[in-house]
C-alpha cells in the first residue's frame, strides 16, 4: 500500500522557541501507523526537532547539494542529512527552481544523491499560472517527472515520493480544485508507470495553500496520498487538523 503522508515545509522560518512550542504541541498527537508526519525545518533546527519530537515525526531537509563533499561553502550533502537523522529530502521545490535557477538536470543529480544516501527523495513538480492558462500544465509536469527521476535505479522506486505543487497556488491563497488536483495526480501516476516504476506503490502528494478547510476535499482524490503543507504547518492546530483529515480517510 502507498503511504499516507502529511509533510510540513517550514521554509526559512524557525527558532528554538518555535520548535519547542510547535513540535511540542503536535508530537503527542501524531504517530499513527497509517500516517507518516514529516517535518522539513531549516537545517540548523533538524536535530532540535528530533529531540523535541521524541520520534513522533519523521525528519526531512529542504535541500541538499549535488556534491558529496568538498570546498562548497554553505552547502549540505545528502550523507550529512542522513547522518543527523533525516529520512526525507525535498528536491526541486519551485522556489529552488525559480530563485536559485535549479534545472531539471540538477534536480536529477540531487535525487540520485538522496536515494544513494538511503533517504527518500520528495520530487516537487508543478506549473506556473501562464503554463496552466495556455494548456501546458500536464506537459510541464510530465517533463519534470521524467527528467527529475530519469536516473532512479529500477530497485529504488520505493525511495521516491512526488509532490505536485502548482506554482500559482504556493503562498497565494489560491488552490487547485479537488478535481484538478486528482487529474494531475492521475497523470503523474501514468507517467511513472510509463517509466517502468511501480506507480501504484508511489505516494503522490498535493501542495499549494493546503489548509484545514480544504484538505479533506483535496485528499479525497483516489490518487492523492497526502499533502506538502507550507504556511499552515507553522500553526500547530491547523497542521494537526490537516493530519486528521488524512487519517480519517486512510
TrEMBL record:
Q: Where does substrate bind?
A: 9-11, 171, 209, 230-231
Which CDD domains does the entry mention? TIM
Give the highest taxon in the source lineage: Bacteria
Q: Where is the active site?
A: 93 (electrophile), 165 (proton acceptor)
Task: Tell me a GO cellular component.
Answer: cytosol
Could you tell me what reaction this enzyme catalyses?
D-glyceraldehyde 3-phosphate = dihydroxyacetone phosphate
Q: Give the location in the cell.
A: Cytoplasm
The protein's UniProt keywords, in alphabetical order, are: Cytoplasm, Gluconeogenesis, Glycolysis, Isomerase
What terms describe the molecular function in GO for this protein?
triose-phosphate isomerase activity
> Pathway it belongs to?
Carbohydrate degradation; glycolysis; D-glyceraldehyde 3-phosphate from glycerone phosphate: step 1/1; Carbohydrate biosynthesis; gluconeogenesis; Carbohydrate metabolism; erythritol degradation
Q: Which GO terms describe its biological process?
A: gluconeogenesis; glyceraldehyde-3-phosphate biosynthetic process; glycerol catabolic process; glycolytic process
Task: Read off the Pfam families from this record.
Answer: TIM
Query: So where does this one cross the membrane?
Result: none
Function field: Involved in the gluconeogenesis. Catalyzes stereospecifically the conversion of dihydroxyacetone phosphate (DHAP) to D-glyceraldehyde-3-phosphate (G3P).
To which protein family does this belong?
Answer: Belongs to the triosephosphate isomerase family.
Tell me, how does this one assemble?
Homodimer.
Name this polypeptide is given: Triosephosphate isomerase
Species for this entry: Marinobacter fuscus
